[in-house]
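Subject: Re: docking follow-up (flavin-adenine dinucleotide)

Dear J.,

Thanks for your patience while I sorted out the input files. As discussed at Tuesday's group meeting, I've set up the holo structure prediction with flavin-adenine dinucleotide included as the bound ligand rather than trying to dock it afterwards. The sequence and the ligand SMILES I used are pasted below, so you can double-check that they match what you have on your end before we go further.
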Amino acid sequence: MKIQENVLLAPYTTFKIGGNARFFAQVSSVAELEEAVAFAKEGSDETRHLPIFVLGGGSNVLISDNGFDGLVIKNEIMGIVEEGERIIAGAGENWDNFVRYTVEEKGLNGLENLSAIPGTVGAAPVQNIGAYGVEAKNTIEWVEVYNLTTRKIEKLSNADCRFGYRDSIFKDERKNNIILRVSFLLSKNGKAMLEYKDLKMFFAGRADVPSLCEVRDAVIKVRAGKFPDLSKIGTAGSFFKNIVIPRTEYQTLLRKFPTAPAFLADPSRKVQGSTSTSSQNSVQEKSNDPAVKVPTAWVLDKVCNFKGVRRGNIGMFENQALVMVNYGGGTAREVRTFAEEIIFCVKQKTGLTIYPEVEFVG
Ligand SMILES: Cc1cc2nc3c(=O)[nH]c(=O)nc-3n(C[C@H](O)[C@H](O)[C@H](O)COP(=O)(O)OP(=O)(O)OC[C@H]3O[C@@H](n4cnc5c(N)ncnc54)[C@H](O)[C@@H]3O)c2cc1C
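The structure tokens for the complex came back this morning:
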């Protein structure tokens, strides 16, 4: 394993933005990972106590124009083990290749709605990836991690991971953990989840139940219309999380915007108090006032009219107002400035606070 110096990170991200990593290591085994960690923790005087950042496919990060002043470890730990309906995958496996394998080669149900999400298996538990009514937490059995503090390997159960809406323990308490492998419990005879509007429309008029492969193909086709082609335009996908608020607050919103859509959020989800002045991580639980999810894309499109709006090299995608894109040459500074403008507009017009889904690094 080679530790490189001053490596440009932009090409390692789907946004195609970001300066240099002071040090950069690609690891494909636990032994290589331990070697890289030792370099950052007790290398020479010059490199001791370096901060570490773990990079997967770089599809949910905005890396600073100044880069990362530490060691970036790109996780390339591969391998897939099949134990009947349990499939264990290495963190460095490409997520969509893994989904294709479970659906097309193994005929297993559970991940088909999560088709075509960029990135790696190891990042899936971090923000509990979700799409079309399904979240990674529905099938994750356990997550194996390397704890950077104890330098030991540990196994966390699904409950230990404290999954929430685009959230898990790996975003705060366990931020010092590097995910090595993830075990998924899938099923041979499970039922396809077709409740989500786009999938219902896709299969409208079908009397029989679509096969798993058909559901996967449908998800890929629907997504192709919503996200730009990553080989041509840079993006990190949906830039903001959806708005999750108590139903009473939604009723207030309806008075001003009678057509505002909402869906009942999972009652176990955290409720972001939009009237709260606290930070993104500060949440409140209102079990007697069920949470609803208001699509942020609707607010950005219909209330703030950001769909297709461009600021320099950056813009909100013309097919999906939630997707920020880099038309080429965009900087992290431009993205942050535009994001602030959007957050301000939403607050002014609706009183609601929106939070980035994309992680700012460096
Ligand atoms: C076009 C597009 C569409 C998208 N659609 C969706 C969607 O439908 N649903 C959805 O949920 N997301 C979506 N995303 C976001 C993104 O694809 C997911 O969050 C994905 O899981 C990120 O994977 P990654 O490997 O690229 O992670 P990275 O961007 O490299 O990292 C993201 C975070 O995970 C951490 N991380 C990565 N690997 C590890 C590891 N092995 N151990 C510990 N921490 C790790 C990083 O440190 C960082 O904090 C989309 C992104 C794009 C560009």
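A couple of observations from a first look. Residues 332-350 form the longest helix (19 residues). Helices lie at 30-42, 95-105, 197-202, 212-226, 247-256, 296-303, 332-350.

Let me know if you'd like me to rerun anything.

Best regards,
T.
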